[in-house]
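Escalated from tier 1: iron/sulfur cluster holo job.
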Amino acid sequence: MIGPDDIPYLPRGVRLHFDRVRDTWVLLAPERAITLDQVGQAILAEIDGARSFGVITQALAAKYNAPAEEIAKDSAGFLGALKDRRFLELQP
Amino acid sequence: MSARPPIAMLAELTHRCPLSCPYCSNPLELARQETELGTDDWCRVFREAADLGVLQLHLSGGEPATRRDLVDLIVAAREAGLYTNLITSGIGLNERRLHALDEAGLDHIQLSLQGTTPEMADEIGGYKGGFARKMQVAALIKEIGFPLTLNAVLHRRNLHQLPRAIEMAVEMGARRIEVATVQFHGWALKNRDALMPTMEQARDADAIVKDARKSLKGTLVIDYVPADYHSDFPKRCMGGWGTTGLNVAPDGEVLPCHAAQSIPHLQFDNVREKSLNDIWYNGSAFNAYRGTDWMQEPCRSCDMKLKDFGGCRCQAMAVVGDAAATDPVCIKSPHHGALQSQADDFSHNDTADLIYRSAPGKAVPEPAE
Ligand code: SF4
Ligand code: SF4
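Tier 2 regenerated the structure:
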């Protein structure tokens, strides 16, 4: 599980891409293209390999006027699944 | 029929290859170099693919590194907005070329593995010294930092090496391994007696993969293609015919799957004459087995039909002689029992020799009878 102090980043070979044909954001990774909903896109766009998960959820909470705990809870599962597929890594 | 846009395109840049694996998925009739699409044609096809909705481009062959313009092609594909994956044996790549591919923006490399020892790998690939070269390339890939998938192709002769193949993937720094049991199309169909795994091997592999998935969770992702003939349900081939992906052969013919040329009545369009968009939506080969209207019983009334689309058309053609039949791997197919006992016979043939794939323009070797 990703904790508030973890610093996530997208490893080489995994990147956000705007799919102009389907008019949606996708995450491109080896052998996979994952369609992102608004929340997924918003959180992945914030991930920069420098700020912690806690700081990112705070920033999103302010931006979308939603409780930070809720954003953390909603996105931890999604990010955990990406981590299991090695589409997301945590800074050592 | 309203088809959705494709997600993935396999570009078979060439059929030329220094190796001659007896399970090569290329057709028996290999495209000669003079018939290959040129650089400009490929670059145009990449742009057309991106416009059509393709996100993932797999550059394959033969050996794609035999194309002198490989780096230019990667540049063009990235400019078109595609995710680029190079499927290679590693032969033909050196330090200078790998750095050029890095600069060109290559996203990912998939390295094939014919065996885990030089003896096995060089025998299966039919290329002496190939294993040693591959190991050098793997070290360079790691050093440069390309994301890597190791693609271990397994069959009766090398299935015992599976645990070592998984270890090697971890040592190479691969994030992912494809444990691919040979699928019997193309050249592999000529080698069923030499390559068919035994039922015991197939079940052992299931168990090894299951354990490794658990112990390597978060380190190595394992994608597994189990032994087809020893299964009771067919694979969802190509994610469903004409739903997800397309293949462009070296000469520009556009195929719904890499083995589709084995279905004799299909007619294929060529990117030299038509746009990829027109071919995808209107081409007769793509519409032949799209959806479910073409299905026969038992598929027609089966509740799995939107899950597996009746399995593989090429396999139905090869084994049953009718491309619209239920994939004989399916337990509901009237040919399932015969296929399983055939598989058992093949897997206990101890005298069969390997028939290696030939080079483009050369005759197909026949087994000594
Ligand atoms: S009968 Fe056809 S649709 Fe049903 S499981 Fe078998 S192959 Fe799939
Ligand atoms: S099932 Fe047939 S059509 Fe589909 S990929 Fe396999 S060989 Fe090709």
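Helices of chain A lie at 38-46, 53-64, 68-84.
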